[in-house]
Amino acid sequence: MAHLELGRAAWTLQGTRRGLAGKLWAMQASTIALAALISSLAAACRATGTGGESAPAGERPRVVVADLCVYGATSAGVVAAVQARRMGRSVVLVDCDGWVGGLTTSGLGATDIGNKEAIGGLAREFYRAVKRHYRDDGHWTHETREQYLGLGYGHPRDGDAAWTFEPSVASAIQADWLREARVEPLRTRLSRPHRGDNRASIDKREARIVAARMEDGTRIEARMWLDCSYEGDLLAAAGVAFRVGREANAEHGETLNGVQVAQATKHQFAHPVSARVDPSDPSSPLLPGVEPSAGLEGGADFKVQAYCFRMCVTDVAANRLPWPKPADYDERDYELLLRHLEAGSTMAPWHPLWMPNRKTDANNNGAVSTDWIGGSWEWPEAAHARRAELHAAHLRWQQGLMWTLANHPRVPRTVRDEISACGPTKDEFVATGGWPPLLYVREARRLRGVATMTEHHCMSREVVDDSVGLGAYTMDSHHVQRHVDEHGDVRNEGDVQVRVPRPYPIAWRALLPEREQCSNLVVPVCVSATHIAYGSIRMEPVYMVLGQSAATAACLALERSLDLHELPYADLRRRLLADGQVLEWTP
């Protein structure tokens, strides 16, 4: 962390705002970003019927008791709650983000998996429900069903499922599931000890979690616990070991982990761009966000890959909002972008994937794009207030980027025209001005579990014998940092894109902490994996698969009064297969 703080101090000396520390970031965050965040939280509270406020003075905090507590209403959390109810168990689903469904309902409508046949169980039920929805011609408002099917993307005519969808459709399907299961998400989150407050948010008896204290005073008591959050906040609060950042290649005999300068050929600067404030002066300070060195090739660091918002935009004028300009917009924040375009880059730096009804799931693409490289490093272990500041700062960055691309005179006319033809949708994310409420947290904490998934498992050089689902996507890391090269130019570092040869099994033991640390906690999102293996596992359909498997195991352990580590894998496997899960790959 000292390296990070020194880097931020250097940025401040350069007169940039990006390097300012937390409180100053909050003061400078755009009014648009802060309004969007507040609206998002307010809308979520209205939707769930719970406000997260503290109990009135003199009243005893409420106590919620259930067989299972599912912490995190991500896609994994929703599926886990539904599975637990189908198995006859009571469950409390904690919506700690203010938005149900995770990235599946927050803009990531283009399903990444690698091989769709690797997805079974409730996850496949979800994508079949998407297919049923779009079979109805009445659900096509801005284009016809045949026009979209003609693109040949995401909706195979002869398939049982559809893999591209509007955020509102995903939200409606998940809401129906929760309503049918009689699960009302509880809008609250774990309390974090403040300075001078030594009370723990988790009550444990030996190695078992007994209860958790929420920020609004609610006490949740449960026999089994699932951490389905993107950040692993529950596992950390429970005192379970975890990783943040990249391991050195040497630790597990990998080749794609740690600092990756040689591999970083994608989303790279196509033309030389000076890393200096004054390109003519080699002694001039580095531009904001540029590190003096990338570090040792293959070496470990604490940094995590970049985050962004998966934008749902449209080119339908009647449904299109203008690109907002942050109130404190400063073109100096986009100097690298402008220099790269002026150096000869002609590509509009974004990747709009078309969803039904002329909407997109728009992702990062290019040297300077929607990923705010370096802005994610603090997020995994940040307190709630700091994450709110980082959320606002990311929103300010991305809104400023899109406004720049659409309007700035230093941007080529062809690029401005392409970006200006689109804008945020009026009918998605209405409470947040058409912007997704959730930041795409690609990677945060990762469990240090009984087993660790590595590059060797992804490449099928090693195969586990306790599968609870399959991974199938490319080992994929977005860029982690920017650095100056030997020529004084800026380079991006961290991007890795290496295909796996076939779908591979994910170990049940990779969802379990060491037994002496916690014996009634399952972690289906922040699984035990190295950075590069997690880059393949971290797909929304896989989270759903693992969420179902985790809930199944918890219910079986409850039925038999066992610790999770005592549950015979053969019994778990039998139930998973009966529920339609895919545990091995047969070509």
Structure commentary:
The protein has helices at 2-13, 22-28, 31-48, 75-86, 121-135, 145-149, 167-181, 233-237, 249-252, 335-342, 384-407, 413-420, 455-458, 531-537, 540-560, 569-578, and strands spanning 63-71, 91-95, 186-187, 202-205, 208-213, 219-227, 242-243, 290-291, 313-314, 351-355, 359-363, 423-424, 446-447, 467-471, 475-477, 481-484, 490-493, 496-498, 504-507, 521-522. It is α/β, with parallel strands linked by helices and 587 residues long. The protein has 2 domains: 2-43 and 258-432, no CATH class; 63-245 and 444-478 and 498-578, FAD/NAD(P)-binding domain (3-Layer(bba) Sandwich), CATH 3.50.50. The strands form 7 sheets. Strands 1, 2, 3, 4, 5, 6 and 20 form a 7-stranded mixed sheet that branches. It has a 3-stranded mixed sheet with strand order 8-16-17, with no helix packed on it. A hairpin with a 5-residue loop joins strand 5 (208-213) and strand 6. It starts with a helix and ends in a 9-residue tail after the last helix.
Summarize the structure.
The protein has 587 residues and is α/β, with parallel strands linked by helices.
